[in-house]
Amino acid sequence: MSAVTVLNNQATAATDAEPALTDGFQLVIDALKLNGIENLYVVPGIPISDLLRMAQGEGLRVISFRHEQNAGNAAAIAGFLTKKPGVCMTVSAPGFLNGLTALANATTNCFPMILISGSSEREIVDLQQGDYEEMDQLAIAKPLCKAAFRVLHAQDIGIAVARAIRAAVSGRPGGVYLDLPAKLFSQVMDAAEGARSLVKVVDAAPAQLPSPDSVARALEVLKGAKRPLIILGKGA
Question: For this UniProt entry, which residues form the secretion signal (predicted)?
């Protein structure tokens, strides 16, 4: 056997031994698909353009709009109609702010919706060093939605998506904000570990039965009413 053949065999063996890898882009897509998300309502742009392109390749339906508020409203209505959170994706800063109007409206109207926006790098924004489209989006979103999360590490993408889904549909439904800094998408980790980090939400909105005492008290009140009026609706 020649020296060249030996070297080639060694190179092949080394290549075969390398573990499969995944990245932030793929983990976001995998987490959404695992939890039954089929449609994305978006206005493409950096840093989510590559994410949307890959999502289409993975079978997700990407529906593009000309304005983020319209995309967010479509996601919110889809959430209301399907009882699963509608997902809107936007770019950072102005795109995020445009989508935030729809997020606030979804929260007020009890529509399950998730707004996912790209954002600037935390280490630059927190020191106000002038990053591109610098804005503390998480702080802005918190007062206007049920919950807001920021993901800094690829291994936390799965749990963040799961928590966002559960928060959006459980109890009184509403809007949830998920902040994904641009650097997160390029983070790489072992594919097997990445798969194990994903979380599938089981029974995201469990039925909450009132206690027998509460039911009995309500019946007593109704018995004493001359013209009882019951108002029922989402969030009641």
Answer: none
